[in-house]
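# nightly structure sweep
# worker-07 picked up a monomer target from the shared queue
# config: single-sequence mode, recycle default, output format = structure tokens
# input follows
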Amino acid sequence: MALLSIFDGQLTAKQFQKYLFLFTREQTIKSFDFIPYRYGCFSFQANQDIATLTKYGYCGIVETDNGKFYKLLNDDNYIDTIKLEDRKSLLEIKEQFGKLSQSDLIRYTYRQYPYYAIKSTIAKELLNKKELNTIEQQKPHYAHKQLFTIGYEGISLETYINKLIINDVNVLCDVRKNAYSQKYGFSKQTLELACKGADIEYIHIPSLGIVSAKRQDLQTQADYDYLFQEYRETTLIENKDSLLTIRNLLDEGKRVALTCFEKDPKQCHRTCVANALMQLPATDYKLQCL
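# output follows
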């Protein structure tokens, strides 16, 4: 809200994301995380926050022929509600970048932070060959197939997606029974959208999940170990076809990540799935926990 306020109550969606990104570069503990996306640096959480503020009448989203705009619906001196150092940073950003056109603003972020331009669909329109080559060098390229596991507990959607991008993951296999989470970004629809924007295929494999009723009252590692022993003896055996679906992706040379909630691999069944894949015949890929 303070960002919109300091820019006279209105910004395009692209300007909002870029100014917010530049603002967070000045913060020791960043308010928002970002990923490389269609137009460069993008925060799903900030985008969701704008939608929530719109729902409650604090700002409006206006669609025009020139794109999407965010507009404050009232002026309650939001700039005075934030910390002094943040207020100073916003004022400096307006002073330094406020007169740039939207294209020049985007171009600046691409030049200064090329990693965030690696998924851009408009970079060729804005940059010269040397600058495009710099962006190309930021893209991770691994020739060998690999299996990964990753949990989303305790991290933002953007941090999670960046881990996948940096490790050149091609396919994310969601092995939750129900692809729903109270944590923003990790329900199926949003997670699939974020993956698509990062050129990562999303596949939900509920047959390899564990019903939530069995996950209640897990207090010790011994409780998890008992649950996973049962899982290996039942679900993994009964759903070998699902396991082979993942193996086929690896055989195609894909870099595949298995995902569920828990941060600790020892307390998540994705590790059981990964170990089962590693025990299949003629395994020519390695396993890494992200």
